Amino acid sequence: MPDYESLWSELGIDLKPHAELLEALLPLYQEVYLSQKNRPRGMEYFDFVVGEIHGLRVQELNDFRRQGGKVVGTFCIYVPEELVLAAGGVYVGLCAGVEVGTAQVEAVLPRNICPLIKSFMGFKLARLCPYFESCDLLVGETTCDGKKKTFEILADYAPVHVMEVPQKKEAPDQELWLAEINKLVARLEELTGKKVTYESLREAIRQLNAKRRALRRLAELRRADPPPISGLDALLIFQIAFYDDVERFTEKVNALCDELEERVRQGVGVVPPGTPRLLVTGTPMAIPNWKLPHLAETSGAVIVAEELCTGYRYFQNLTEEEGGSLEELLVNVARRHLAPHCACFTPNGGRLEDIERLIQEYRVDGVISYVLSFCDPYAVEHYQVEKFLKAKGVPVLKVETDYSMQDAGQLKTRIEAFVEMLRQKT
Amino acid sequence: MPDYESLWSELGIDLKPHAELLEALLPLYQEVYLSQKNRPRGMEYFDFVVGEIHGLRVQELNDFRRQGGKVVGTFCIYVPEELVLAAGGVYVGLCAGVEVGTAQVEAVLPRNICPLIKSFMGFKLARLCPYFESCDLLVGETTCDGKKKTFEILADYAPVHVMEVPQKKEAPDQELWLAEINKLVARLEELTGKKVTYESLREAIRQLNAKRRALRRLAELRRADPPPISGLDALLIFQIAFYDDVERFTEKVNALCDELEERVRQGVGVVPPGTPRLLVTGTPMAIPNWKLPHLAETSGAVIVAEELCTGYRYFQNLTEEEGGSLEELLVNVARRHLAPHCACFTPNGGRLEDIERLIQEYRVDGVISYVLSFCDPYAVEHYQVEKFLKAKGVPVLKVETDYSMQDAGQLKTRIEAFVEMLRQKT
Prior knowledge:
- Chains A, B: GO terms for molecular function: hydro-lyase activity; iron-sulfur cluster binding.
- Chains A, B: Pfam families: HGD-D (PF06050).
- The structure is a homodimer.
- By secondary structure, chain A is an alpha/beta fold.
- Chain A has helices at residues 5-11, 15-34, 43-51, 56-66, 81-86, 102-105, 115-125, 130-133, 145-154, 171-192, 198-221, 231-241, 246-266, 291-297, 312-315, 326-337, 349-361, 376-392, 408-425, and strands at residues 71-74, 90-93, 137-141, 160-163, 277-282, 302-307, 366-372, 396-401.
- Chain A has 19 helices and eight strands.
- The interface between A and B is large, with 44 and 44 residues.
């Protein structure tokens, strides 16, 4: 990796622990990712991105800022990326996915709170995420109690704008959400000094839809048996989707898909045909939260789909591109971004329908219901998921865990037993 | 207590564990309540209500139901009691406040979830709450993730209507909330077969405001030094407010206040003048969740105010009684019920203002910030409360606990040290 120390130093990164963090990440990546067999060549780009995880992209963002550009950090798929682009900004998903800055976090947050929330506050308080430090504005949301209340504290450390995501999807909720979309537009325009116009929004929608189409294409290639790419590699691409440059990323995903299509034609896969096929559903997984997929894919199974925000929920819906006015395009953006079925909604039957559709389309043998500790929305909704799957005769394994490795041995045993059961069933 | 076994049996109560529950409650009440010194005579009625806790009132509700009346159970101060009354129904707050039915609950809910939620689901699943079993409809809300998602499961066991409480209080939120108020009216009218009219709503507002005025009067008498009533007794009255008959309760509270006024005039109190005065703020306390006030008031302090839903938040706001039409009265109800400052809102500066006002008006020496385990909204907002109070120089003690007695010894030590510090300071 080139030397980014002066950049990090300029951003106020705490260099020593940051160096330790990167030193821990790269061997983990080696073990989890580079040890995989039959990887597609097109993964080289994504390996490069991880190798440069706090480097090149951060450099790009800061070059953009030096020219007067504004960077907006987001945490959630409900924050419309289109609006940031259309206002002339660049958006970036923020760091989480690892235990970090715990001592600093526990001085401001309760100990028993979701590891994702502890992680992003830890990155901020310990000054270990150059993306965070490159942001001119953070856009939070009210999708869960923990995040909603933590953004209030985060606002002591950085400029924060919070979008209210409604809890149902009825007419008054849609109106509330459209008002929130308009408020975000105003805030972004104020930030960048540029107007969101019909043309700029249309172009942003086009770019984002192209990215979503590429991700859908990638996802759909995994319907093949054997799948041409591992669940780990697919997850990595979805994780990188949140912070890479949109057009470059879309091009690289499409190039990978060309290769994967060829693989599918030739029957080349990452596992033998007939390998038990898993769907993972639940709370999102930020880099480097790879524990569960790594355990699953070294237990004789392959993950073929993710009903996660770092998966299907991120790219399932396109924004309608037709619209006669800016207002109509904003309505399209609002409609598209209220569509995914996060457990923050009540009731949330659409999620069960998505799971059922993914099971059929991806010929899934078993489901892992993944819940981060203390994540009430997904932990409680697990009951509905399990009831639904049991009624359909689909095997389901609940995995409740955090970012530590303490339970890895026990999880491995449970997952192996689950995979063995699937193997005997199929 | 008269014999209510046949009534409970008819309601489907699981009689043996229910008898054990009551057998545990009454000695606890004896120890916590009846051992208090200098209690006002007017507490006799409230002692009687607790003695009859699952008896007389349940009998009344079921006599009402036999005449065709409908009973509506609620969990939260945002559910407007006025609307239930105006539709010809009776509302009742539901059981919680004690560890119960845990084995049944943990089969459907995650183990690490708020004790209040586990408790109400435990009461329902184990069939131990005759109020639950007397309800024709339960009205839930979306004030926290745990409750929001648990109501979906509860709907498998009883008819549930969920109100969406918005997360901010801006214009679009007020519109959403008014729509929710109108949806509840429609649901209640369907349930009772009676229309909410201008006259019935006006009368209901009048009754509820009279109750709130009586509770305010009670609260304000506690400004005296020494206070004429203990925090434990005041809390009990606020707890009973959620399920007793409105007019009888109002009358009894006012009769007690007459006595308390006389006490204040004569300088009679429940503790010596100069006893350290506490404000308790945080998550609500349902009967018999008396652990914290009992520990505090046997540690040489007196609680003079509660910034809780079982306290100030319940009666601080009156509903505007003037309005030329049913629609205007409904707007008044909506406005009043969005006013209290629950930690479900973001940001929630109004709560800090309330706390500050209570500290001044009630001459508070120290604040206990009370958080039920795994209650993210209050647990995270504690940070804001503590920061605010420290800036004002007001001592604050955070107490995070559950419904068990395991931590009672440790809490007692911490509270005694806090009270001793207040004593030296004043």
